[in-house]
Amino acid sequence: MKEGRILFLNEAECKRLLPLPKVLELMETVLIEHAEGTATLPVKLHMGLRPDYNGYINSMPSYLKKHHVYGVKLAGCHYENPKKGLPTSIGTINLYNPENGLPFAIMDGTYITDIRTGAMAGVAAKFLSGPAPQVLTIVGAGMQGRTASLSILASCPTIQEVRLIEINPTMLSVYMQTVGKAYPNVNFRHLQDIQQACTGAQIVHVAHSAPKPLVRDITFDKGATVILTAEPFIARQWLDTFDTRVTDFPECLVTRLNQEAEYYSQRDGLPYDPLTPDFSDVTIGEVVAGKHPGRKTPDEVIVAVFVGMSIEDVICAKEVYDRAVEQGFGTELRLLDL
Ligand SMILES: NC(=O)c1ccc[n+]([C@@H]2O[C@H](COP(=O)([O-])OP(=O)(O)OC[C@H]3O[C@@H](n4cnc5c(N)ncnc54)[C@H](O)[C@@H]3O)[C@@H](O)[C@H]2O)c1
Question: Of 16, 148, 179, 208, whose Cβ has the fewest other Cβ atoms within 10 Å?
Answer without folding.
Answer: 16
